[in-house]
Amino acid sequence: MSDGAREGGSAMALSGAGAWWSDPGLLVNGDPDHVWGLLDSGVGPGARLAAAVYRASAYVHRGATPGVRRQLLALDAARYGDRDLSARIGAVPVEGEPAARWGVDWATGSDVDARFRCGLTGHTGEVWAVATGVMDGRPVAVTGSEDESVRVWDLATREQVGEPLTGHDGAVLAVATGVVDGRTVAVTGSSDGTVRVWDLTTGKQVGEPLTGHTDWVLAVATGVVDGRPIAVTGSDDQTVRVWDLATREQVGEPLTGHDYAVLAVATGVVDGRPIAVTGSDDQTVRVWDLATREQVGEPLTGHDYAVLAVATGVVDGRTIAVTGSDDQTVRVWDLATGEQVGEPLTGHTGAVWAVATGVVDGRPVAVTGSYDDTVRVWDLATREQVGEPLTGHTGAVWAVATGVVDGRTIAVTGSDDQTVRVWDLATGEQVGEPLTGHTGAVWAVATGVVDGRTVAVTGSDDETVRVWDLVTREQVGEPLTGHDYAVWAVATGVVDGRPIAVTGSDDQTVRVWDLTTGKQVGEPLTGHTGDVRAVATGVVDGRPIAVTGSYDQTVRVWDLTTGKPVGEPLTGHTGGVRAVATGVVDGRTVAVTGSDDQTVRVWDLTTGKPVGEPLTGHTGGVRAVATGVVDGRTVAVTGSDDQTVRVWDLTTGKPVGEPLTGHTGGVRAVATGVMDGRPIAVTGSDDGTVRVWDLTTHRQTGPALTFPAPVKAVAVTPHNTHLTVAFGHDIAALSPH
């Protein structure tokens, strides 16, 4: 064993709970379960920071090698703004592995949050539903997913309990927990139109599925009526149904009144009577007396779009409902009077898909999850947001539940990113000094030089473009705004001696930005009739041009001096154009494009004609293209949904060697550069890794770099000094050691 590894191991045994946070060897080489047990034992800012850094990717650490943990912990320390801790972690020796090849220079921390406690992974589809409960004295979360399974998680140990519960033939869209005959059960609703009851102790389905709904079951809640446990379900069939969980029979006729799908259900008690509250695609909230099965009063109106989420709670002794909507607002209703309480709660920038209520430090709160990837906490007494949004999910937050673990109120959230996250709602202090930036997923990165400074330019789901100084790690100026939808593509270039960026967006426009002034140059370039997902720059006949690819299946060329299109659109692809790069072949400027039609095409930008036949071989959409030079020959490197990387000789139109394999997810990003005098390709994937390939030998160089979220974009700086990676809402700059 190396001295460093032995040092980490002995620290694990001897340090106790008093010094673990100052020992990077323990964090890297220590058993993750042991380290996890120490995280709440430290005192002071150093301990809090180390605990937050470890938790940031804790769901990866348990199954990772020490080498992968070293790289992730160094990255997460940088995300929290502690470059010294990042460097010390990166220098920890790991037995049987070489020193880290890449160092983390800096990273943004938009996705890190001190309130994050742990992540639970296992689902292979979007997590649509979450509920909490107590099973055999242990706090648990129950989750339902697009993968058709239900999973149970021990919230104290972070372990999945037993095998997944299977039986549904469609996505599990709704989950609630309850107690029947003294046993904790879960009740689930699915796109298969059934409701199922599960004994959480045995992991077995209880009886046959409950049938009656004629469409997807979108919502489930549990309650008690006349001493009997019941479930209330809402469906795409516009009805609400009540089920006796002891007999597993439907109680009475369906409750009707909603004009569209019933998307949300909650139960509660008003003036001693059990009620259900439902939200619908018809924009209304309705209250039902579960004893009489009659609607109570008029529908509650105010939301401008579908009501997606409902929860009930108590504020100042009065039962309230909290609703979330496609109109991006949260509303609070007094269920005794049927009146809205105060103004809508605003802040989310996407539809509010999930709501739960709880109590934190004696105060009633609502916790909401949104399509904007964030979770927000609201004080229901003051109707103010509590602290900053909880960030970390890299997809829409579809589900929220609250519970109590070790006396602390927690929220459990499920997301489009296939993860379940647990948050401590009482932890509000700032930890570290994270550099924040984008508030949405970062889809694009390009690098360039402005006033002698090497910069990265990023485009995001938050509709902004940002410029970052890669040496000082500061954002340069204000965000560049103007696009009305997500910015999916960025390229840099020079026009009239000035550095510019060209961006493409889901708003179907292309925009040009002066990177010195931070201003848009001229009017948007319009013509595409679909989302613009790819941009590259180049020079044709001495004039700077941009080449753009769109979901409208066309490629367009623009003169960046005049802002005018050059010639007619280039047509031939039969699917959306996702990737564009430019290069020079035999003295002529070409564009290389990749498409959802699984082909790569080469275009002569002087004539506007295709060069040769399409390049075929990929068995999935082509998501990324870059060009480079290997042994004096221009090549294209392409990444695909088929998880492979391919290299093509652009002179012959033939593939060079076998596909490069290793990624276990779609390859979304490709960049080329030179390292140690050898041409390389850098690829990023949905599998959360970045791989570096030697284009001469066609071999991967060194181990994959692991990131805590899918990698959306990569860029290599002009002087090959930095690698910039976009993952989740964050970016990181790395340099070779």
UniProtKB/TrEMBL annotation:
One of its GO terms (molecular function) is ubiquitin binding. WD repeats lie at residues 120-163, 165-208, 210-253, 255-298, 300-343, 345-388, 390-433, 435-478, 480-523, 525-568, 570-613, 615-658, 660-703. GO terms for biological process: proteasome-mediated ubiquitin-dependent protein catabolic process; ubiquitin recycling. InterPro entries: WD40/YVTN_repeat-like_dom_sf, WD40_PAC1, WD40_repeat_CS, WD40_repeat_dom_sf, WD40_rpt. Keywords: Repeat, WD repeat. Gene3D superfamilies: YVTN repeat-like/Quinoprotein amine dehydrogenase. Pfam families: WD40. This is Uncharacterized protein. It comes from Streptomyces atratus.
